[in-house]
Amino acid sequence: MTGFRSSRNTIPVWLTVLFSLFGPLFFSMNGDLFAEEKQSAIAFQDVTDAAQITFQHRSPVTVQRHLHLMMGSGVGWIDFDRDGFPDLYCAQGEEWSNVERKQSQPVDIALSNRLYWNRRNSQFQDVTVASGLTVLNYSMGIAVGDYNHDGFDDLYVSAFGRNLLYCNQGDGTFSEVSSFAHVDDPGYGASCTWADLNGDGLLDLYVVNYLEIDRDHYPICSRRVDAARVYFICHPRYVPGQYDVVYLNLGNGSFLDVSQKAGLHNEPARQGLGVFAADYDQDGDMDLYVANDSVANQLWINNGQGVFTDQALVSGLAFNRTGDREAGMGLAGADYNGDSELDLLVTNYFGETNTLYRNEGALFFLDVTDETGLAAPSRARLGFGTSFLDVNNDGWEDLFVTNGHVHDRLSQLGKAEPYEQEPQLFLNLAGTRFDDVSEQSGEFFKTKQVGRGCAVADFNQDGLADLAVSHLNERLILLENRSAPIHKSIALQLVGTVSNRSAIGAVLEVTGGSRKMTRLRKGSSSYLSADEAWVTCGLGDSNAPVAVKVRWPGGKTENWTGLQPGGRYTLIEGTSVLPEQPPTQP
């Protein structure tokens, strides 16, 4: 395969002799180090059946290989009943038809999106019908946030077709208010996120749109091979992009489409798939980074009043380090190297790298994929969902990627690119490099699948980050983190009062002992997915009381001190008082 760089080096003779003389002594002296590594072995267990989650994604492939059928759906965590345990929402696909389904048609629950209630005993119960969340469309992205400030998280679902907003009634049920709220965009919705874009304390909505597709004139691509016609999904460069949408929250239950006023139409429409909201220039307002498929990515910088300009090119985020555009799918953001700056990971196409952009400050990013060891392992994969999570609580955020191709007929076209692919887990080596530990992390990582979305949550409150992973035409998998870390974590829930109640966009500085770690209260991320609202932060070697500094959306800061390792705390804007909550981890 082209694009690989040789890493072969010649070992000097003197180094070989030195190692032969003193190598055994080195290993003997460092026995405790290796014992610690063994204790903190990474292990994820597939507990889908034990958790009683039965969701099966359905996206029947057509002979003509309609493009959207291969893109899959996301997964999201939402504590809809406010019991402190995250519940699981699974987006469903749909059989192809050039006619949109009527709402009056009978509901087959197996074909619907599904909501699973977390019963707090590592088991879940399907409450889809009781909650009013039966949805029959090709659902794509999931965004979770309290848009009406009533204390209960609401749910937005983008789709190939009409998008849907579900208002949480606070009694275990949801009401579909898409038309009333004026957020039922009929395009080809991909990832979406809540964020306060104009600084008024209300959550606005950003929806990434993918392609401009007419159901009655659907783009079909094929090639004649050995006297037979072989259909395959069209490359996005042959299908026009579609403008993203910005909905401004008016505070009365409805929204206003301000996409043009916000500046999104000042550039040609692009083929967007992923979005990650954050204050990239640290000026107190929320900006947006959008991963686009096979065209330049966009970094929408906010002027503080909800008007954006794309600064991806000058910031180093439009292309990779060689100036090539890539097929951006999923997005993850974290301070992976501990310098208090937000870095970004974009998953890309087979033969490309998943690209890691290190934040150098002053709104400039550098592609460090090669230096961090992520280039070679990702070139032989097609990445979709991706998440930063600290799997062993050492204080360094590790990286998960779920993989799977979009073409299932490449062998007929003479290409040796697998359709089903193994997922990957990379251990963060103190912010310097990532080590591929997939094969040692559980049977799930040895199984080839067609991965799409993924989302992080500590669903059983044991202090370890778990994963939910969606697949195309396959079962959703719930992975319980059963690593044996020697470190504790702390779990933090933020509640905004002046800021948006969900505190989306808040930055946390967690200090334990001599270590300071930066974490972000995220909106949506990965690919079409949403992590839980609680922020879990590993504390490394420190067992000292923890100090937390919160920079709320808008720039206001508050400090909490004396929090105990292993505890779960709710931090309310404007209080700065330590809640009376004991540690929950052993």
Walk me through this protein's architecture:
- This protein is mainly beta and 586 residues long.
- 7% of the residues lie in helices and 33% in strands.
- The chain is built from six helices and 37 strands.
- It is globular.
- Mean pLDDT is 91; it is low at 1-39.
**Mean pLDDT over the residues:** 91
Based on secondary structure, the structural category is mainly beta
Q: List low-confidence stretches.
A: 1-39
**Spatial ordering of strands, largest sheet:** 1-30-29-28
Separation of the first and last Cα atoms: 49 Å
- The shape, in one word, is globular
The portion of residues forming beta strands comes to: 25-35%
Give a count of the beta strands, DSSP E runs of length 2 or more.
37
Rg measurement, Å: 23 Å
Helical proportion?
A: under 10%
| Major sheet details | 4 strands, antiparallel
Q: How is the quaternary structure best described?
A: single chain
Q: Tally the helices.
A: 6
Main features:
586 residues, mainly beta, four-stranded antiparallel beta sheet, disordered N terminus
Summarize the structure.
The chain has 586 residues and is mainly beta. The chain has 6 helices and 37 strands.
